[in-house]
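JOB MANIFEST
job_type = single_chain_structure
chain_count = 1
residues = 233
[input]
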Amino acid sequence: MTTSAPAAEPFTTKADYAYQRVKELILSGALAPAAVIAQAQLAGEIGISTTPLREALRRLKSEGLVELDAHRDARVAPLTAEEARDLLELRRSLDPLAMALAAERRTKADIAAIRAAAGGLRPLPGDPAYEHLLAHRRFHVALYGASHNELLVQTLDSLWDKSDRYRRLALAEGRSQAARDRKSAEHEALVDYVIAGDAERAAAVMREHIDTSLGAQAVRRLRTEDGEDGIDV
């Protein structure tokens, strides 16, 4: 497991630093799903004691990324078909709503932020670096923010970290160039329709975006592994 130093950030406490570092390791795949977390070793690698690390692990447990048992042993939360399905169902409902509201409420500042975030998008590789996933997230966050519904934005943001782990799983299977091109076209359409104020089309594109997403691909893969192939997602 590599733990290269992160870019400098103004962390308030060692526990905040530990939280961000361990979260990055989980989302980047350096700490794999269901992996046991060797707490003393990890604390040494990221330059802290086990006390702030345990505080960070409790926080990550509350977000569903880590599991802790009664003996304070920790492991990365496993990937499951049930959680992947739950995430997909929520996003099928909430993402189109966010796009419709964004098209109705976007401001000039929102439009500038959306265009800037879109400029940083690149097709996700099979083994994406954390930075690749962050760029994808920034794009969607810019769109969500234009909805000006803070509770909706917070809810979608809380789903994103869990969803990224399933995206990584699906990306490992590979995607055709046609699928990559389709996703790029959907991103462009989302920008165009939100900026144009077309709520109906923005929501429709996002619904299609979710239905053909890496999250949907992950549901199919996990259900196949569980012997549930053929069940609609």
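[summary]
The first strand starts at residue 66 and ends at 68.
Strands lie at 66-68, 74-76.
exit_status = 0
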